Records
---
Amino acid sequence: MKSSMFVDVAKVFVQAGKGGDGVVSFRHEIYIDKGGPDGGDGGKGGDVIFEATENLNTLADFRFKPEIKAENGQNGAKAKRRGKAGEDKIVKVPMGTLVKRDNKIIADLVKNGERAIIARGGDGGFGNAHFKSSVRQAPKIAELGELGEMFELELELKLIADVGLLGFPNAGKSTFLSVVTNARPEIANYEFTTLKPNLGVADFDNTSLLIADIPGLIEGASKGKGLGDTFLRHVERTAVLLHLIDVYSDDIAKSYTTIRNELKNYSHNLNSRPEVVVLTKTEGLDNDILNMQINELRKVVNPKTDIIPISSLAHHNLKETLRILKTKVDEVRSKDIEAYEEDLSVPVISLNEEQNSEIWDVYKTGCKTNESGEEVSVFTVRGEKIERFARRTNFDQFDAVNRLRYIMKRMGISHELVRQGALGDSIIRIGDSEFTFIEQ
Ligand SMILES: Nc1nc2c(ncn2[C@@H]2O[C@H](COP(=O)(O)OP(=O)(O)OP(=O)(O)O)[C@@H](O)[C@H]2O)c(=O)[nH]1
Ligand SMILES: [Mg+2]
């Protein structure tokens, strides 16, 4: 991966497949005068499904394909043949991708292989074979397929890297990144060389770590000094922190505690993140001085935290550091997954899908001049189930519209319309469709 910058949000437009239309058709048999209805149903439209994969680390790909579409279902055919269902569209996203619609999280893909249906394909419409009854031997109605869901999404990748590098300016963070990963950040012997975060992948022992290098932090960073808070945001969901301290620091304990304080002030989350401490630039340093520095540091560092002297220049202790980091990253990730599974077991009380979709609402929305030049009232009907029926109604077919009126009656909507003063020629509006309350 060649990456010099975080790509952690992307906007995409998803469109699930439309359901195929049902058809009107009658059997043709030589000895039967008028064959029965045999129009088949439309096939279901394909879903748009997201799948988390460990093979992606960024959302960069979505910049080049911001529109994602699943296949439409095919129309029904005679002899009750159902149209072929549209194929689902499976889209790979990095593990840790949050999927948001209108600022609401609709999916959080954590584990490798985990899937979520993001946009549902429309159902196929019924063919006329479904509408036969004792009083209606030759139904001339068939439903249209439903549209697939379509909307804009925002993807957010918070779990950006496995390891976040922290430390004062000039501590040697970018140098470390450039030696252990494929990244080529700018390096120089002055402070604030790095101005924006860098990412790199360290390959070793048949495994890898994604490492994020951020600009140096200073006292007050958590409050925004030197843009510190934006940089801290970048390491907020890294699994493990690698704290780099220049072994030549005058007050090595203070170098450490200053950065720790900024973490604490920034968020509890970041403060409790597992960490590894390395002393940088130690090649050629007298052992006594090195040990003295380590002892000073020990006074303020948690006894369980590793303190490792390294040299990026002399390639000293780099692999050892990566191995320790990897062990810690794996621990954190497996805990993340356990916590996530616990989350899922929390019971949620809500209306079931059936109850929810039955809810409807009627209100008078104004007046309008109809085709005969008369002033008539307009009523709007809203509700998931009735809107779904309306979308599936072919308004060119009298029988189909009458069926919709019948469904309104059964759901109690017609009664409410009369109560609110609807007359036979009142216009009823459901979704994008309009029709008269009673057939004119
Ligand atoms: N002798 C020696 N010098 C090093 C080592 N690692 C880094 N340096 C030097 O330290 C200086 C700063 O290195 P950088 O990697 O740019 O430091 P940084 O922490 O990224 O600095 P900012 O981006 O300003 O926060 C450079 O001159 C490096 O050559 C090392 O292992 N040994
Ligand atoms: Mg740097």
---
Amino acid sequence: MTTIGIIGSGRIGSNVAKAAVAAGYDVVLSNSRGPDTLGPLVHKLGPRASAAHPAEAAHRGDLVLVAVPLGKLDEIPADALAGKVVMDANNYYPQRDGRIAALDDNSKTTSQLLQDLAPSARVVKAFNNIYAAEISEHGSPTGARDRRALPIAGDDSAAKHLVASFIDAIGFDTVDVGTLAESWKVERDTPAYTQRTTREELEAILPTVERVQQA
Ligand SMILES: NC(=O)c1ccc[n+]([C@@H]2O[C@H](COP(=O)([O-])OP(=O)(O)OC[C@H]3O[C@@H](n4cnc5c(N)ncnc54)[C@H](OP(=O)(O)O)[C@@H]3O)[C@@H](O)[C@H]2O)c1
């Protein structure tokens, strides 16, 4: 059975954990303050959940989720992500994260920042385009009518396939937006951002998206 290692167990991390546990996955949660502080969440999630320090969560994960405030990205144990399939949920909010020049001038996407920190990780943009609580609320079975679709992006096709399988198992279709360089198409304030769309609706929006300067 696949284990999901989670770095950042706030709103996104805890809701991905909840959906993953409901679908039969094991989860290893971590945060900045240590595993003891995650006791209540682990208890609530049940026997499939455990807590660890971030590096151990990454080591134990077959898939790893990074869901921390973007301004904290360089604090995570990037070495522990080597070779891992890593789902990157992070978005850029300058008022929270501070100004990041490479995002302000559009020379990088948020996921490319993570890829730069962990060059051999197989980074896939995922879960950045949905409100956290909806991850554990909006899922529906494969093939369901009006099933919600989430965008993914990445440079490694096999990694994207694994992430799409996980997202399908927890209740969502996926739409492949392209490479990490192209993942700006679903970053903050783009037309599909946080919209509840089916696969067809999301596919129709993506070709219309234009890149704007970060505000
Ligand atoms: N909330 C949403 O609806 C939503 C939707 C899509 C994408 N996102 C994006 O997803 C990311 C996470 O958002 P969130 O709302 O889940 O944030 P959050 O609720 O504030 O949780 C952040 C988590 O990151 C942990 N963290 C901070 N620094 C860390 C470090 N150095 N090492 C390990 N863990 C660390 C925090 O742990 P401590 O509490 O111990 O510091 C906390 O568990 C952000 O980039 C956000 O923009 C959020």
---
Amino acid sequence: MKLLQAKLAKYTAPQQAKAAGVYPYFRAISSEQEPEVIIEGRKVLMFGSNCYSGLVSDPRIKEAAIEATRKYGTGCAGSPFLNGTLDLHKQLEARIAEYIGKEDVMIYSTGFEVNLGVVSCLTGREDYIIRDEQDHASIIEGSRLAFSPVLKYKHNDMESLEKQLQRCAPDKVKLIVTDGVFSMEGDVANLPEIVRLAKKYDATVMVDEAHGIGVFGKGGRGTCDHFGVTDDVDLIMGTFSKSFASLGGFIACDKEITNFLRHHSRSYIFTASITPASTAAALKAIDIMEQEPWRQEHLWNITNFALEGFREMGCEIGTTSTPIIPLYIRDDYKTYHVTRDLFDEGLFVNPVVTPAVAPQDTLIRFSLMATHTKEQVEFALEKFRKVFRKHGLIQ
Ligand SMILES: Cc1ncc(COP(=O)(O)O)c(C=O)c1O
């Protein structure tokens, strides 16, 4: 065996989980991502989706995607920088700028690439990136690529953030980057305080709205809108892969920033534009989210119902107040076994284990869509009660 293969052959954790019958990844879905999906020929309830708006199989969005494919074809065959910009991309950028409330918008191929290409290129060696220790992997990767020193603050801890700000040279750029809603824990960043500290220390703020859009704010605009801090947050990032029922991502900010990014951000320049179908789908999703406020209202009703149900049951769910509900198990293998048992009971949920979290913080991530019914949530709560009792997680 060659050296590389011999080294990698020592990594056997997936094989061990498969042998134990609890490997929970790459479960192939053979239907649309409705609240009910088909896996291995069985119907199971989907409580692992990030499409909080529930629009992912909406016929109007499908139609828009088909029409765009007819008009523009299936791909763009190039980067937005060169031959890959369509008038449809420009239309989507203008629509998001107006929706989010920022001067300009750039569309990237994924949300991951937004964070990678924005966080890595705005600051120099003498500047600083300051980020929450629980920020999404894409922000961490973006900051690893930057030349600036990266200062981490304790999760959503404003004293810790202020200490880091005090360490910085006052006349240098300080870019604070935070998730709006944290993707695994479901808690919400303290944006009013972050903005206050940013003003005090002359810092720039970037918020990742991947899990805020479709959930918070008017028409699902996100946490910045919810807290009324859109004007104070310099850069608002979002993805199309969650509530926008598509694929791609955006950054919304002032023209001085986009002018620089358009000519320096490598994950924007050196990759192909999103497909016409993805562009048209995102455009349509924004219209529907604005026109159908019932989605957000219902999402919050079932979210509050589920939060109450899990708390009453005695489950440990941390400080979440959103449709992302973490159920702490605090053991890798138990998390796999509970996920498997829930699946056998007809529920799809996501296990979050090491190295995504520390071994003592493993959890099951339960997430809701606006298209779930209250009865489906009740069914899920009953199944959780049964499985959690079996594993001694509740009484
Ligand atoms: C907080 C956060 N930011 C960014 C991303 C990346 O988004 P995308 O799926 O568009 O690459 C994700 C996706 O998991 C996320 O949870």
---
Amino acid sequence: MTQAASPTPNTVTHTATNTMADIETSHASANAVPDTTVTLCSSEAEKQNAQIRSQFPALHQMLDDYPLCYLDTAATSQKPQMVLDAMAQFYANDNANVHRAAHQLSARSTLSYEKVRDQLQQFLKAERREEIIFSHGTTESINLVAFGLTTHVSAGDVILIDAAAHHANIVPWQELAKRTGAVIKPIPLDQACRLDVSAYKTLLELKPKIVALCHVSNALGTVNPVAQLVQLAKAQGAITLVDGAQAVAHLTLDVTEIGCDFYVFSGHKMYGPTGIGVLYGRFDLLDTLAPLLTGGEMIKRVSFEATEFGSLPNRLEAGTPPIAEVIGLGAAITFLQAELTPQVQAYEAELVNYLQSQLRALGEVHLYGAFDDNIGVVAFNLADEHHQDVGILLDQQGVAVRCGHHCAMPLMQSLNLKGCCRASIGIYTNKHDIDRFIAALVSVKDLLL
Ligand SMILES: Cc1ncc(COP(=O)(O)O)c(C=O)c1O
């Protein structure tokens, strides 16, 4: 199978400083010697990385004859032992439903559950603990907001959506538009695959009701200047939501500084469990959201004539929540707060740059939206080979990458691609992983080209 699209000026490699000539040259440099201009990893950083990596049991396994080389953290991260222990400990000792019973076990589990809300308030630098809502993931968090805002939106209102958005940040807005008669308009990317700020400013003149942005693109790893973009949107009176699913494991967050009305993410991409997500909402606006789910836990009084809803945060957390997953998320936050130091963040940035430079040096590799400030992700195709073929052949050597449209079909269409491969790193990734990946890709290249 071959990839349908060949590189065009808006689909090819870019760095922050590239000229188009550089970009084309980087594609033509088949058989080039790997770039040695990127110096990587002081021995101190390597030591710290080894200490962090040792906490992730899943990484220390063989796949047939190959040690696992896990470069799919953007899809879901591996989990440190302390997250596994916290959840096992909860089920072994404290398991009880929250908020309900008078007994000690329930008091204990409620305390542990609510402590994670406090942790999140501090982690995100939110003003109030009631601004933190537990959901099942980013997807549910965005659905909570898009449904909850229904009565805020009227026919003809404009909803702006980042053209690089994940489907989770597109489809719930389309459904809102269907319910209300609102109009969706994508915020285009520029030729280099960054959000086009000047086009964005023009779209803001339409005085949109809602602006939905991603913090870090899951498909490309490009970073939006969210504080600046939110400020521009707020100046036009828009409600703003930032999808932080790909940012939260890598960046230090401050939702007050970003200034957005809503910030959403998933636990499983930040070393926590699946099945748990977070919705941060600015209190005054969050308090006006209609609940997506109704039932137990979220009420103050119920009769067959009428129901009075409870107050935040419970009003938006109907039913038994994912308690063990919240506890696991709490452990993941403790882990991140201890381990994600500025040095570790710098090491992650170096790894991404190293990955980009090694791919460029390989030749016959098309990189997409590759800037030197990308976070976590490198998107590429090997010549015109189908991304799925490349992924399967890499897997046969123990290298796990993601291949496909990355739940960003509109972005892929704008790049004239059916899909691409995505290598993504986490706090545990090391230089050896990148070298293993590149060596495996060299053998795929030898086989296919
Ligand atoms: C940027 C972004 N938004 C939303 C999602 C959806 O997250 P979840 O499937 O955990 O709800 C993802 C998952 O890949 C993502 O990367």
